[in-house]
Specification:
The complex is a heterotrimer of chains A (about 140), B (about 290) and C (about 140). Helices cover about 35% and strands about 35% of the residues of chain A. By secondary structure, chain A is of the alpha+beta class. Chain A has a five-stranded antiparallel β-sheet with strand order 1-2-3-5-4, with helices on one face. In chain A, a hairpin with a 3-residue loop joins strand 4 and strand 5. Chain A is globular and about 40 Å long. Chain B has two domains: about 150 residues, Globins (Globin-like); about 110 residues, 2-Layer Sandwich (Transcription Regulator spoIIAA). In chain B, about 60% of the residues lie in helices and about 10% in strands. In chain B, strands 1-2-3-4-5 form a five-stranded mixed β-sheet, with helices on both faces. In chain B, helix 7 links the parallel strand 2 and strand 3. The longest helix of chain B is centred in the middle third of the chain and has 44 residues. Chain C has about 140 residues and is of the alpha/beta class. Chain C has one domain: STAS domain (Transcription Regulator spoIIAA). In chain C, strand 2, helix 1 and strand 3 form a beta-alpha-beta unit. Chain C starts with 5 loop residues before the first strand and ends in a 7-residue tail after the last helix. Classes of the chains: A alpha+beta (about 140), B alpha/beta (about 290), C alpha/beta (about 140). Chains in contact: A-B, A-C, B-C. At the A-C interface, helix 1, helix 2 and helix 4 of A face helix 2 and helix 3 of C.
Chain lengths: ~140, ~290, ~140
């Protein structure tokens, strides 16, 4: 992330069960629509968010997502911060390689999601938790 | 009040304005051809009033937006209107800097103690400098917006989707195919497929100067997306150099129909749609 | 318990997905579909996703599962009506969606199914007509 963006609005949602996924996706969509994001970028943002939130549920039994409307210069965007207190990821660079898998999933979660976003940052500590931060600009 | 300058300026506002106007008149940057003297006076008075009215002990040492909001918005509008009128950013900058001379002159007349004069002059000088720079920043922002707008326009017009036949679309791609253009191409193409119910899209890349692995990736993505919509893609306009590069780079295009010319791609498309082009029979007239 | 309705259209089955699929619903769909194919001997499954605005890897996996299960039961799966934004996102996400064919709408989907089944049957006939009797 380059210069620090300014936060125009902060929101958060606790994700504890599978039933929380859809309301979460709808909330993200609300904010994306509010800043005038086009349909394709909206779809990419929400799809990526869906991937990350499912990861959070699957590997960390849930967590919290912070939804922020941000601005950097002339661009508005949405920043999502996925915080969990799960087991952490042992080898981040391996997890970011296409085709890597730990569970029964296709293992395309992280690298694919990164491609859908404009900015992608992941921090993880074994036994403590993982934080994934993504940004999608309105004109991303 | 800690800073004498503030009271002085409030007291001698009129004089400062007159001094400023006369400094401008004596210099080249006045540009009477672009703006009437009356308009210049109105503009200058507005800026000066905003500056002096907002000047206080709390903000005299800082020139940030939050402290001088009104001044900054007036500066922004001055910068924009002057740019539209044809002033160079330099001329607009010098216009603001010239206020400094008027202010400092008045300070010199009113403050006797050299050290106080120096400190106040320095503060005012720094303030006006940053105001001048603000006009440059507004100008640059305006230019950037023009560039962004034009970039978008170029992306839009350089990727037309042509309906060459019922169910067949053609996209002549001209220029470099980067990721943002690929997005535009994909969006337009898929939208057109939905609207026309086309089942074949011909991507002609004879206008694409170079095809490297990244460009190939973009093409492959476009083909995949088209297939998800139930349509098929043919890539045409493959120059011999491109064929070489593709093989040397180890790019696998075997899953995509490729043709060297748009004409042969069209023939293939007709074939797929079970269409035939027949020559008309010559009319013979019975005697 | 919510269930996604499966319509019978001749030799084919039509599933229209209009709500967000969650775990239980998706599993039920897979089970119901496989049972329906068995019961009706359907040769094709059409999945209408024209109302689906987000397809993530979970949903992609379900589609893939349905395609594989159906194939084992001798039925082809066609996904119809994918929204452009979804197609673009899926490609970027990198979902392979193997064994899943696509069509623009239900009508085209049925045409495609019919031509695929015809093709299959022609091949089988040729095979039967092989002069040598080796299996």
């Amino acid at each position: 992330m380059t210069t620090t963006p300014i936060i125009l609005n902060k929101d958060s949602m606790a994700i504890l069960r599978e039933q929380d996924v859809v309301p979460f996706r709808n909330r993200v969509k609300e904010y994306a629509v509010k800043i005038g994001m086009g349909v394709v970028n909206q779809t990419k943002l929400i799809t990526g968010a869906s991937e990350l939130v499912r990861n959070m549920l699957k590997y960390a039994k849930g967590g919290t997502v912070y939804i922020e409307v941000i601005t950097r210069g002339r661009d508005n965007g949405i920043r999502l911060i996925f915080e969990d207190k799960g087991p952490g990821i042992e080898n981040i660079s391996l997890a970011m390689k296409d085709g890597y898998t730990t569970g029964k999933s296709m293992g395309l979660g992280l690298p694919g999601t990164k491609r859908l976003m404009n900015e992608f940052e992941i921090k993880s500590e074994l036994g403590i938790g993982t934080t994934v931060t993504v940004i999608k600009w309105k004109n991303g | 009040m800690k800073n004498e300058a503030i009271k002085i300026f409030q007291k001698r506002k009129k004089t400062i304005l007159e001094k400023w106007i006369s400094i401008q008149a004596n210099d080249d940057f006045l540009r009477e051809d672009l703006m009437s003297n009356d308009d210049v006076r109105i503009q200058s008075e507005e800026l000066l009033n905003a500056f002096i009215d907002n000047l206080a002990d709390s903000n005299i040492e800082k020139s940030r937006m939050e402290e001088f909001g009104e001044v900054h918005s007036i500066l922004a509008s001055i910068s924009m209107t002057r740019a539209k009128q044809g002033f160079s950013p330099r001329e607009t900058g010098i216009y603001v800097f010239s206020l400094k001379a008027a202010l400092l002159e008045v300070l010199k007349e009113e403050i006797k103690d050299p050290e106080t004069l120096y400190i106040q002059s320095l503060l005012i000088s720094n303030l006006i400098d940053s105001f001048g720079i603000a006009t440059f920043e507004t100008f640059i922002k305006g230019r950037e917006e023009v560039i962004f707008r034009q970039t978008d326009e170029i992306a839009e017009i350089s990727t037309p989707v042509i309906r060459v036949w019922d169910g067949i679309l053609a996209l002549p791609i001209i220029g470099t195919l980067d990721s943002s253009r690929t997005q535009v191409v994909m969006e337009n193409l898929l939208q057109e497929i939905v609207e026309t119910g086309s089942s074949i899209a011909i991507l002609d890349i004879s206008g694409v100067p170079a095809v490297d692995s990244l460009v190939a990736q973009h093409l492959i993505k476009t083909v995949s997306a088209t297939r998800l919509m139930g349509a098929e893609c043919i890539i045409s306009g493959i120059r011999p150099e491109i064929a070489q590069t593709v093989v040397h780079l180890g790019i696998d295009l075997s899953q995509i129909i490729t043709k060297s010319t748009l004409a042969s791609a069209l023939k293939t498309a007709f074939n797929i749609l079970q269409l035939e082009v027949n020559k008309k029979q010559k009319q013979t007239f019975a005697k | 318990m919510e269930k996604i309705p499966i319509l019978r259209m001749g030799h084919f089955l039509l599933v229209t997905i209009q709500v967000d699929l969650y775990d239980q619903l998706a599993e039920n769909l897979e089970t119901d579909l496989v049972n329906m194919i068995n019961k009706t001997g359907a040769r094709g499954v059409l999945i209408d996703v024209s109302s689906v605005s987000i397809i993530d890897s979970f949903m992609g996996r379900i589609l893939g599962n349905i395609a594989n299960m159906s194939k084992i039961m001798d039925a082809e799966t066609i996904v119809v009506g994918m929204q452009p934004a979804v197609a673009i996102t899926l490609v970027e996400l990198g979902l392979p969606l193997n064994g899943v064919h696509s069509a623009l709408n239900v009508e085209r989907g049925m045409e495609l199914l019919r031509s695929k089944i015809e093709l299959e049957e022609t091949n089988e006939v040729d095979h039967d007509n092989d002069s040598d009797n080796t299996e």
